[in-house]
Design brief:
The protein has 13 helices and twelve strands. By secondary structure, the protein is α/β, with parallel strands linked by helices. The chain has a six-stranded mixed sheet with strand order 1-2-4-3-5-12, with helices on both faces. α2 packs antiparallel against α4 and α4 packs parallel to α12.
């Protein structure tokens, strides 16, 4: 186990959770080798036939990128496709209009498997599907995290699994969770908090990436929110003494936050933007201004502590500038809880599927785009599967983290982007809207389907994953979300 993992579990013990130990050596390699090629081949053929529908959905979402909690068309598209294939839909769950749960199969004594489907885009990331920087006129957001592929690939896996359950007579239930606002809105946290995962046995997810990997790593917990300062407007030259600049409050907070960086635990990440600069004329003292902050660390206890210090800094900034402020929390997520049992199942499935094979057009696109990347990685890496590992360090954050503390959870990444591409970049948007992204989404759908098929067929693996989950989580663990607000911030992107 990494040092980060040890620190995480030790910190959670302070919240009442027992420190989780290592897996029993006898169980370390207990997962069987995987679904045989003969068993899995019909599933792969089924998804090859369904691939055009995955691509159609992915492209529709890419062409109409929607921000968090505003994913009306994307959510409706996925619901429509699932309904057409016999899924029962419950829409608008957990107080989120674009969230849904789609259910198929028969419960009986079978396993219940949840599949996560993200859909939101990022602001300011408009980009055409070309290998050079080219924004799309009249469009601000873009799928810089590839959630158009995420949602479409998950739907494809769900449709294929339903057909397999029906044709094989296997008992079990599939639930697709349409999860909005992953990018800072923490949509899944509201779903966990409302108990939507309470009778799910295993949750599966995937994410666009620049390589194919089923490594199970720890992510960063985070808290995010907006500090809104209020002052007093006045003529900046004729009556400056009558003004109190809200922008001064924001700038004072930012200055103190930057000094704070020197005195926080090493793995802490603090990011901010000035989301409202306070007016449009320099000769008017700004009466309002806003800063939007993220604080991240592997340990949720550290995140809470650092954010408290940040809030104290905001109070000092307001006092020093004669302004006032209010804080609105927009998000808060746990770090990922890895599961080695499920990770090995997913790795085996991904190995059976194989990586992303480029066409000549894909390779030409990738070679040109690679010239705009800081990391020059050979494009042949897209066809490879990364070695498996567990308990590694990860520096992103995701609301899948909260799901992973509620139910045994496993994820994987598929090479939907040119090797070396960072997430949240124009290069990621470009590849997410063309053949490279399409092929990666199909690889993910296949790997998810094979993993789920195996878990449905081998309930002992589900039991083993649950036992590991309980050991890692600790018998005294009680879920207390980092997100402390009653209802989702449905307007946080407006």
């Amino acid at each position: 186990m990494s040092k980060t993992a040890v620190a995480l579990f030790a910190a959670l013990a302070l919240q009442g959770a027992a420190v989780a130990g290592q897996l029993d050596p006898a169980n370390a390699d207990a997962a069987p080798a995987g679904t045989t090629a003969a068993q899995g081949q019909p599933m792969l053929q089924r998804l090859d036939a369904y691939a055009p529908q995955i691509i159609r959905m992915a492209d529709q979402m890419w062409q109409q990128p929607e921000l968090g909690y505003l994913e009306n068309a994307s959510s409706a598209l996925m619901q429509e496709e699932l309904r057409a294939h016999g899924f029962q839909i419950e829409a608008g769950v957990a107080g989120m209009p674009t969230a849904f749960v789609a259910t198929a199969g028969k419960r009986g004594k079978g396993t219940v498997i949840g599949l996560l489907a993200e859909m939101d885009a990022l602001p300011g990331m408009s980009q055409a599907a070309v290998p050079r920087r080219q924004a799309i006129a009249g469009q601000d957001p873009g799928h810089a995290c590839g959630h158009n592929l995420f949602g479409a690939g998950t739907v494809g896996a769900a449709v294929a699994l339903k057909e397999w359950l029906d044709s094989s007579g296997t008992e079990g239930e599939i639930r697709v969770f349409g999860t909005p606002a992953e990018e800072g809105g923490s949509g899944k946290v509201y779903m966990v908090r409302d108990g939507l995962f309470k009778d799910v046995d295993v949750a599966l997810h995937w994410h666009p990436n620049s390589r194919n990997s089923a490594a199970q790593s720890i992510s960063l917990a985070n808290i995010s929110g907006k500090f809104r300062f209020s002052g007093q407007a006045s003529h900046a030259a004729m009556a400056p003494e009558r003004g109190r600049s809200a922008l001064d409050g924001v700038e004072a907070l930012n200055h103190m936050a930057n000094m704070l960086r020197e005195h926080v635990p090493q793995e802490t990440r603090i990011h901010y933007i000035i989301s409202n600069g306070g007016g449009s004329a320099p000769n008017v003292v700004p009466a309002s201004a806003e800063a939007y902050y993220y604080v991240r660390h592997p340990d949720p206890v550290v995140v809470r502590s650092v954010f408290k210090r940040l809030t104290d800094a905001a109070e000092g900034a307001a006092l020093g500038t004669g302004t006032s402020f209010e804080f609105e929390q927009t998000g808060g997520v746990f770090s990922l809880l890895p599961n080695d049992t499920l990770g090995k199942v997913m790795h085996s499935s991904l190995q059976q599927v194989g990586g992303v094979e480029y066409s000549a057009a894909d390779a030409a696109f990738a070679k040109e785009l690679r010239t705009h990347l800081e990391q020059q990685v050979d494009i042949s890496e897209a066809a490879k599967i990364a070695p498996y590992s567990v308990d590694g360090d990860g520096f992103g954050s995701t609301d899948v983290g909260d799901v992973s503390w509620a139910v045994p959870t496993v994820g994987m990444g598929a090479a939907t982007w040119v090797p070396g591409t960072p997430a949240h970049s124009w290069q990621a948007v470009a590849a997410s809207g063309m053949g490279i992204g399409h092929k990666g989404a199909v690889v993910a759908a296949k790997a998810l389907s094979l993993a789920a098929m195996r878990l449905f067929s081998e309930p002992e693996l589900v039991q083993q994953a649950r036992a590991e989950f309980e050991r890692r989580r600790g018998k005294d663990f009680r879920y207390e979300p980092l997100l402390q607000r009653e209802s989702p911030p449905l307007d946080y992107r407006k």
